[in-house]
Design a protein that fits this description.
By secondary structure, the chain is mainly α. The protein has a single domain (about 15-195), classed as Vanadium-containing Chloroperoxidase, domain 1, CATH 1.20.144. It has 7 helices and no strands. The chain has helices at about 5-15, 20-30, 35-50, 50-75, 120-135, 140-155, 165-195.
């Protein structure tokens, strides 16, 4: 992909924040920091719905996250369906893009070459939709919204994605998250009736 309309925004958002900022963004972009959030979702769902219904939700959540990741892989020509749309024009990550790589701050080059569509954005948005709709607490909506913003921004800061990669990932995550959530609701009604 050769579009460049988001390059200026990328360069504005991507800057050298020094070793502390680099380290913080790497942590935010990783999975270990968010383990407490995943545990909270599991515990909350268990208390609200019971183990059987909570387990159904967790399985559906895993499906939504996996689906988001696989769909993003199609556009990056990676993952199990990488050959599904071979003619789709790939877009390099900013760190590998000849247009901006010399201007970008790149804390680490340990990434694949292509960035569209952002799997990080897709999976965290999918998680956000499913968990927010299941938990239905205003304070949680704020927490998960901040988490989404932090993770998505970290991908730009680390020069892994252009802003449009994040937007496209958000769309994928919204579609997969909402679709699987409503699928879970149908299954959950059946399980809830069996318990009565």
């Amino acid at each position: 992909m050769n579009y460049t309309f988001d390059h200026d925004l990328f360069l504005w958002l991507n800057f050298d924040g020094g070793p502390v900022m680099d380290g913080a963004m790497k942590i935010v972009s990783g999975t270990a920091m968010w383990i407490p959030l995943y545990l909270f979702i599991l515990i909350f769902m268990r208390r609200k719905y019971g183990w059987k219904r909570a387990l159904g939700f967790i399985v559906c959540l895993a499906v939504a996250l996996g689906l988001s990741d696989i769909i993003c892989g199609i556009f990056k020509h990676s993952g199990p369906l990488k050959n599904l749309w071979e003619s789709f024009p790939v877009r390099h990550r900013p760190m590998f893009s000849s247009a901006v790589r010399d201007l970008a701050h790149v804390p680490s080059y340990r990434h694949g070459a292509y960035g569209t569509v952002s799997a990080h954005a897709a999976t965290v948005v999918s998680l956000a939709w499913m968990s927010a709709l299941a938990i239905r607490k205003n304070w949680y909506n704020w927490v998960i919204s901040v988490a989404v913003i932090l993770i998505c921004y970290s991908r730009i800061y680390l020069a892994c994605h252009f802003p449009m990669d994040i937007v496209l990932g958000t769309i994928v995550g919204t579609i997969s998250g909402l679709s699987i959530f409503f699928l879970w609701k149908k299954f959950d009604k059946v399980i809830a009736k069996q318990r009565k």
